[in-house]
Amino acid sequence: MQLDPKVRVIGVASGKGGVGKTTISVNLATALAKSGKTVMLLDGDLGLANAQLAFGCQVKYNFSHVLAGVKTLEEIIITTSSGVQLVPGASGLQELASLTSLQAGVMLQGYESLAADYDYLVIDIAAGISDSVVTFLQSCDYRFIICKDEPPSFADAYAMVKVLKKNAAGDNLYLLPNEVSDEAHAFRLHNSFNNVTNRFLDFSIGMIGHVVEDEAIPMAWKKAQPVVQLYPTSPAACNFRQLAKNVNALLKPKVNLTELT
User: Domain for residue 261, yes or no?
Assistant: First the structure.
């Protein structure tokens, strides 16, 4: 499967939950949209989907209705107030939380025609290293691994990088430090992470940007809006706009999506 050559597919992932993956997905998508790009966000965290909450969207239908044959993909897309087109996932459905790699591949094929008209497809991928997570990430042009400066987050991010490298998905792989105190803190975390990957995996990972710890983020969640939109002058919003600039500056890989079937 290959999408239209202009579409750039970004997978946002983490080795463990609770490190800010959805916050980064939503605000990156919003910052890209506000930079003039057309953006679709796929909530690929199908068992615990909550991107719609961050956008303040009322969701009547989600991907479970597509699987059931009740709705088409086109019919469940929501236009958010930030201009991002959202494909909502489902929440609390165990069968969606444990998709096989084949099911995930079939699901991704369904987005081929939808994403052709967009500049970016951002996929908020479930935490962990399941087969479906690896399949999603193999299908991305760029892979962003979220990591906090905490031992569990560090260890699980390393495990994810190890699995991706083993599964030929180590290209265009970037670390994105979250909830750091400042840029210097982000660089220290990235350097520490690289020291480990260089030593044990003979592999270096780039850094695509960082997001500081900012009280504006939980405040934005409470008001159900992206921080980029609600508090545009906050430190975190500035980080997300810089992240969008960094993403826009990336060269598009020659190969877009991995052949899945």
Answer: no
